[in-house]
Amino acid sequence: MRIFRGDSEGEPSDVDLLAAHVAGDRHAFETLLGRHYDHLWHVAKRTSYTTEDAADALQEALLSAHRNAGSFRRDAAVRSWLHTIVVNACLDRIRRNKARPAVSLSADEDDEPRDTRDYVSEVELSLVVERALAQLPPDQRTAIVAVDLEGRSTSEAAALLGVPEGTVKSRCARGRKKLAASLEYFRVEGNRS
Amino acid sequence: MADRESEPSDAALPEPPYSEDLLADLHAGVLPESVGDRLWPLVRSDPQAMAVIDALDRVTDQLGALGRDHSVSTPIPADIADRINRALAAERDTPAEATVVPIARRRKWAAAAAGTFAAAAAVVVAVAVVVPDGRESEPPPVALPSSETSQAPEVLDLGSDLDSGRLLTVIGSRQLGPLEDPDQLAECLRANGIDPARALLGSGEVRLDGVPGVLLLVAAPRPPQITALVVGRECGAGDPATIAVTDIG
């Protein structure tokens, strides 16, 4: 159950809530999560092979954040800090589950409409890209999330995902090509295969 | 695609029109450098090929923008949020139950011995560091009676053991403290037998068994593994100042 604690004096900041949690406030962390759960869930889903993995990784990440809140440094936003912990937990889960065959977050788990071609604004473009990303095979999607969205180098992504660098590059290449095609960025006709 | 890496450097280059697969590989750096270096000038002079490269650039630009957008969200299913909240509540209510599985650790280890830690590190379970319980007191590292409990706010207290879960929390962060100087960092890694060219995945100022140090997570030579190295603040040329080292994964 999510707790939203709106004090009459105004909402405490994220940093205040984290500090309160570290100081022993029993509800501060859940209040904080109430603000960020949907973003973190979004991030966990796009950085995981399956919905179940996303849920498990998110739980693992938030337990870690709960324990290690004292290590939070004020040079980052709390949301960014949580975001990074969730991404790392998801990638680490993929690394640990490497032997398991990839099962896609299937299209039917995404109840968004598919026909998005007429969107024009930046926000809507993000949605279009996000949906195209969700259609990629999970190995390509997670490599692209690590490298292109999260800005990790290929060597970092390789280490986090537990695969050789060449594999990360190759997955990125295939994934980007599919994205360019599904986003209709390839305009040149010719003898391409 | 990836197996093109085995092509000899003097292999004949593909002829235009170049396939999208080939161009995507070139764009992503999949092709061996010797092939890519010769192919790029040809591709740059081919408008059709460049249209594909431009499309791929546009994709990476859009993905980068998406990554920077921290407003994206998907409603979390209530059952998943409830499950996580219950797990958090359980941990909050039973902090003393945190389990510590000690692993052997020696100071001044040679980095070459790191591999022997991998198996032990893999079974270490979570160690609670901060589990507030409604009191306004300094949260103690639980189940670690012999460790120093004081904790500066900017320093991650690792307790007395290298817990892989906690070590990995610094991935993506860069807090090098006294090793901020790239030359000193490189010398420090070299002194510990680690190639400075290996990717630094994260770093943070830490306290291990009460001893202040710097945690460095570097990509291990075998990609599934990550080397976690804790060094003293004086680490540098000729002085490895190794406090602990382990491979994760």
From TrEMBL, chain A:
Tell me which domain of life the UniProt entry assigns to the organism this sequence originates from.
Answer: Bacteria
What is the protein's species of origin? Rhodococcus opacus RKJ300 = JCM 13270
All copies of domain RNA polymerase sigma-70 region, residue ranges: 33-98
Alphabetized UniProt keyword annotations: DNA-binding, Sigma factor, Transcription, Transcription regulation
Q: Which family does it belong to?
A: Belongs to the sigma-70 factor family. ECF subfamily.
Q: What name is this protein filed under?
A: RNA polymerase sigma factor SigM
The keyword Transmembrane helix is annotated on this UniProt entry: no
Q: Which GO terms describe its biological process?
A: DNA-templated transcription initiation
Question: A Gene Ontology molecular-function term?
Answer: sigma factor activity
Pfam families noted in UniProt: Sigma70_r2 (PF04542), Sigma70_r4_2 (PF08281)
Q: What are the TM regions of this chain, as residue ranges?
A: none
**Which stretches make up the RNA polymerase sigma factor 70 region 4 type domain?**
129-179
UniProtKB/TrEMBL annotation, chain B:
Would you say which domain of life the source belongs to?
Answer: Bacteria
**Record's protein name:** Anti-sigma-M factor RsmA
